[in-house]
């Protein structure tokens, strides 16, 4: 007798054998993961329920209910809830705007399209300033307005009913997807907390590996740190969705973002300490022993946190970190005491000893700051594991607003809508409104992307696949059938495959999203008729051509150029450093690290999967700019204490002024930093006032790193010309 568990065991074995080889191309279809299969089945059923209800309610465009179900279905429940909420908000606002537009410009196409283009362009421009699905809401406002205006262009008296109908079936699709997702998402809060924990542990593991490489002076330490810094903004954005799943009155998401920001600061402190250690080489034996202990801690810490499901390991690690930090501070105090004793002797033979002690204090200060950031990472990590209702902690990253990128996005969208409207008017194609509609959908949906052509390419492929499958369904399968039951049976397998592809890794997910969205539209389910040949040949090509025209406009109007974008980012980095040196741009350390991390992430996104030597140099220069900005903030902080003498303050002010006037390739900041060090070092060696000496040591440590950074990265700081790699064999430039 065959056991009931045999099929399940067989499937698990097949799944393991297929997924053990990562090169198997159709593993997502032949042996999908149970979670992926559950997602595809759940969303297919939700789409069928939405479509059946829309047909039962005699809606004019029931396919939009099924389309909406696939649109809001995301990889996590938090993403689905967020997208559904903002889609509903954007749809409602867009519906009101669509009614207002058609009421203001009835039967006036040459007024409607320009103003519609301005409206959509403005929405897309503002969407660039927002993150996650808040940006998507403004995109929804723009193309919902366009869809309603174009749908009601030939029947303006029915614009209110058209807007109400669209809002109704969008709401219906959202409700069906949300209800089924809620039924099949047990222990959602626990799963979200585990995902947040894994995300933070992954970032901490990468940070420990990167900093350990820097402390060991390993060549790949900087590379590992750079890769992690570029991924921090994306990890912080994902935290919002876990936060939604964990429910209201929970600040675990704020603590998670603070922990990720502390990870960035930990990496930045590691880079600074690495430079100090190179300048002081060989480092004192007791300091080297402390570095060895810390490297051992960084090696075992991620594994201990991973194995311990409670906060015991994190609490124990914090105690050990605080012990190491206390010892570092104590060694710094011991060096200070010995330094002051040698000051009393004031003999020429003690000059080198005092200098070594001063250098050791700089090292210990940098090490203490490194450990402080690591302790902060674990403090916020613990807070995510034991959320409290009495916790009122808030943390927001406030990303920088890129006005030029927003303007370009708005112009692209406006140009695409004008092009679609012009084509409709000139050709008088009966389905030209459908073409113009999907030009608007494509241009607004991808306008906020930095590289819209690359982002929309999968969208176009998905539309083509949907057209192919809909052709088979409309011309071969559905004519032999009747009734909603046979319609749903015919759509089941194509939709299930699309759902599995949506969870597949790589670029296929973008293609699958468009395929799932457009398949119901191209099949055109209705109560009293079916999609006939003439309708299919008019409607489906209009959809595909509209998407293609939207992408084509992206290639013609302000096309994206990765090299030009990197150059623009480099100019912004250096310009920010100049303004910070002048004191006209102020940040906290956390804000500057977050802004620098966003720019690193942009450069990495522009580089694609195979960055060349020039991109690697750009990333190194961007990390240098991040470290330089932190040191400029430190020098301003030293000056704000007003403890140094006028001459000493003037030396630091001169360095900042030199940085604020960077023009072309120059070593002036490096020379000014070296000159200031030479002036402040003797003063620190004889200064007896403890507070003044501490500020002098902080300033000397900052100047030491500034001298190194402006010497090593003078070419990157030259924004008068493109960045060239003289030693690269390809003679690359950007």
TrEMBL record:
Among Pfam families, the record links this protein to: FUSC
Protein location: Cell membrane
Q: Which keywords fit this entry according to its UniProt record?
A: Cell membrane, Membrane, Transmembrane, Transmembrane helix, Transport
Tell me what this protein is called. Fusaric acid resistance protein FusB
The record lists the organism as Acetobacter oryzifermentans
Keyword Cell division tagged? no
Transmembrane portions of the chain = 39-57, 86-105, 111-129, 136-153, 159-185, 459-479, 491-515, 535-558
Topology of the protein relative to the lipid bilayer? Multi-pass membrane protein
């Amino acid at each position: 007798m065959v056991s009931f568990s045999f099929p399940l065991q067989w499937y698990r074995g097949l799944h393991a054998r297929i997924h053990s080889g990562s090169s198997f191309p159709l593993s997502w279809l032949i042996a999908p993961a149970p979670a992926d299969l559950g997602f595809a089945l759940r969303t297919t059923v939700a789409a069928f329920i939405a479509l059946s209800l829309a047909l039962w309610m005699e809606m004019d465009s029931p396919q939009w209910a099924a389309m909406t179900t696939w649109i809001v279905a995301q990889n996590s429940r938090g993403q689905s809830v967020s997208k559904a909420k903002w889609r509903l908000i954007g749809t409602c606002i867009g519906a009101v705007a669509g009614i207002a537009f058609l009421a203001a410009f009835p039967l006036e196409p040459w007024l409607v399209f320009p103003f519609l283009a301005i409206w959509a362009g403005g929405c897309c421009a503002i969407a660039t300033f927002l993150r996650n699905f808040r940006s998507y809401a403004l995109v929804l406002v723009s193309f919902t307005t366009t869809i309603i205006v174009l749908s009601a262009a030939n029947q303006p008296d029915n614009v209110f009913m058209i807007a109400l109908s669209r809002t109704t079936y969008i709401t219906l699709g959202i409700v069906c997807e949300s209800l089924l997702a809620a039924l099949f998402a047990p222990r959602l809060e626990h799963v979200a907390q585990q995902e947040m924990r894994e995300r933070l542990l992954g970032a901490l593991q990468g940070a420990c590996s990167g900093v350990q490489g820097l402390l060991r002076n390993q060549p790949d330490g900087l590379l590992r740190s750079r890769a992690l810094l570029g991924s921090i903004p994306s990890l912080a954005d994902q935290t919002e969705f876990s936060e939604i799943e964990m429910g209201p009155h929970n600040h675990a998401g704020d603590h998670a973002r603070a922990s990720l920001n502390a990870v960035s600061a930990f990496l930045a402190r590691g880079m600074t300490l690495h430079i100090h250690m190179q300048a002081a080489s060989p480092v004192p034996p007791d300091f080297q022993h402390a570095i060895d202990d810390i490297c051992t801690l960084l090696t075992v810490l991620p594994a201990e946190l991973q194995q311990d499901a409670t906060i015991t390991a994190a609490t124990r690690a914090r105690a050990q970190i605080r012990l190491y930090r206390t010892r570092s501070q104590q060694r710094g105090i011991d060096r200070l005491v010995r330094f002051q004793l040698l000051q009393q002797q004031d003999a020429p033979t003690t000059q080198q000893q005092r200098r070594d002690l001063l250098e050791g204090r700089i090292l210990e200060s940098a090490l203490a700051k490194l450990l402080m950031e690591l302790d902060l990472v674990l403090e916020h990590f613990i807070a995510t594991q034991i959320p409290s209702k009495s916790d009122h902690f808030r943390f927001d990253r406030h990303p920088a607003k890129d006005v030029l990128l927003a303007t370009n996005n708005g112009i692209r969208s406006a140009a695409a809508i004008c092009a679609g409207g012009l084509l409709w008017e000139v050709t008088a194609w009966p389905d030209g409104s459908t073409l113009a509609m999907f030009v608007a959908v494509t241009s607004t949906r991808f306008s906020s992307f930095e590289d819209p052509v690359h982002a929309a390419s999968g969208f176009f492929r998905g539309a083509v696949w949907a057209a192919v499958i809909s052709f088979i369904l409309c011309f071969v399968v559905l004519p032999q059938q009747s009734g909603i039951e046979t319609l749903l049976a015919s759509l089941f397998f194509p939709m299930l495959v699309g759902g599995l592809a949506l969870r597949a890794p790589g670029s296929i997910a973008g293609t699958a999203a468009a395929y799932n969205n457009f398949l119901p539209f191209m099949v055109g389910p209705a109560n009293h008729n079916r999609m006939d040949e003439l309708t299919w040949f008019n409607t489906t090509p209009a959809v595909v051509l509209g998407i293609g025209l939207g992408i084509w406009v992206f290639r013609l109007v302000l096309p994206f150029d990765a090299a030009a974008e990197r150059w623009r980012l480099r100019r912004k980095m250096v310009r920010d450093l100049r303004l910070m040196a002048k004191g006209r741009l102020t940040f906290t350390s956390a804000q500057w690290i977050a802004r620098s991390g966003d720019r690193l992430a942009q450069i990495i996104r522009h580089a694609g999967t195979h960055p060349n030597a020039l991109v690697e140099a750009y990333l190194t220069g961007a990390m240098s700019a991040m470290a330089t900005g932190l040191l400029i903030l430190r020098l301003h902080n030293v000056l704000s204490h007003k403890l140094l003498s006028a001459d000493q303050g003037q030396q630091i002010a001169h360095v900042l002024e030199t940085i604020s006037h960077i023009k072309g390739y120059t070593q002036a900041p490096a020379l000014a930093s070296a000159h200031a060090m030479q002036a402040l070092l003797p003063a620190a060696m004889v200064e007896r006032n403890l507070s003044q000496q501490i500020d002098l040591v902080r300033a000397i440590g900052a100047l030491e790193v500034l001298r190194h950074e402006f010497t090593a990265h003078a070419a990157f700081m030259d924004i008068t010309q493109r960045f060239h790699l003289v030693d690269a064999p390809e003679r690359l430039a950007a």
